[in-house]
Amino acid sequence: MTCASCANSITNEMKKRDWIQDITVNLLTNSAIVEFTGRENANKLVGEIEDLGFEATLNEETLDLPDDETRSTK
């Protein structure tokens, strides 16, 4: 991400997904914290952010949380 517009693009597009409960994109740290439902959506999240033209990876902590409390940092 290079500007606030990039962060807003990710935020606005991801909020359209009904399985995403909350997203906070941090331009300074080039990361995001995403709360979403369903462990099966973890890789989907990465793919959808990459489809927007940004790099995305999952934080290993994601897999340690219960399905209903999944969080991801990119």
Task: Give an overview of the whole structure.
This is HMA domain-containing protein. Residues 1-57 form the HMA domain. The chain is α+β, with helices and mostly antiparallel strands and 74 residues long. It has a single domain, classed as Alpha-Beta Plaits (2-Layer Sandwich), CATH 3.30.70.100. It has two helices and three strands; from the N terminus they run αββαβ. The protein has helices spanning 4-14, 42-51; strands at 20-26, 31-36, 70-73. The chain has a three-stranded antiparallel beta sheet. Strand 1 (20-26) and strand 2 form a beta hairpin. The protein is globular.
Summarize the structure.
Residues 1-57 form the HMA domain. With 74 residues, the chain is α+β, with helices and mostly antiparallel strands.
User: Percent of residues in beta strands?
Assistant: 15-25%
User: How far is the first residue's CA from the last residue's CA?
Assistant: 11 Å
Q: What profile does the largest beta sheet have?
A: 3 strands, antiparallel
Q: Please bin the fraction of helical residues.
A: 25-40%
Lateral strand order in the biggest sheet: 1-2-3
Structural class: alpha+beta
Chain-averaged pLDDT: 85
Q: How many structural domains can be distinguished in the coordinates?
A: 1
CATH fold name: Alpha-Beta Plaits
Q: Strand-and-helix sequence, N→C?
A: HEEHE
Question: Ranges with pLDDT <50 over ≥5 residues?
Answer: none
Q: Which CATH architecture?
A: 2-Layer Sandwich
Q: Tally of extended strands?
A: 3
Global shape: globular
**Class, according to the CATH hierarchy?**
Alpha Beta
Rg calc: 11 Å
* Count of separate DSSP helical elements: 2
